[in-house]
Design a protein that fits this description.
The protein has 94 residues and is of the alpha+beta class. Helix content is 39%, strand content 14%.
Length: 94
């Protein structure tokens, strides 16, 4: 009986691993359909900050439309929303 139980556990583990790999692939595809859009997030609603931001990540922006904080948006929609593809600090370096 322990041999059949071991086989069932191995099969279940294999199916679980296959499901995890499939889910991570679809999450990656979803990320590829989005882009960083700087200067459009409201205070406390940013997805992260750029390298010139005064904080490290999500939900920490203090002001609306900070040009160094970004929000992930569908690819191709950033400039239509009034945002920029680069942080303000990146644009000043050129």
């Amino acid at each position: 009986m322990s041999t059949s139980r071991t086989l069932i556990q191995a099969a279940a583990s294999t199916l679980l691993a296959a499901g995890i790999f499939a889910a991570s692939g679809s999450a990656l595809a979803a990320d590829e359909a989005k882009e960083q859009c700087f200067g459009i997030s409201k205070a406390g609603q940013n997805d992260c900050g750029g390298k010139y931001s005064k904080h490290s990540c999500a939900g920490q922006s203090k002001v609306d439309n900070d040009p160094n904080d970004f929000k992930m948006v569908p690819k191709g929609s950033c400039e239509k929303m009034g945002g920029k593809m680069k942080a303000a600090g990146d644009m000043m370096k050129k």
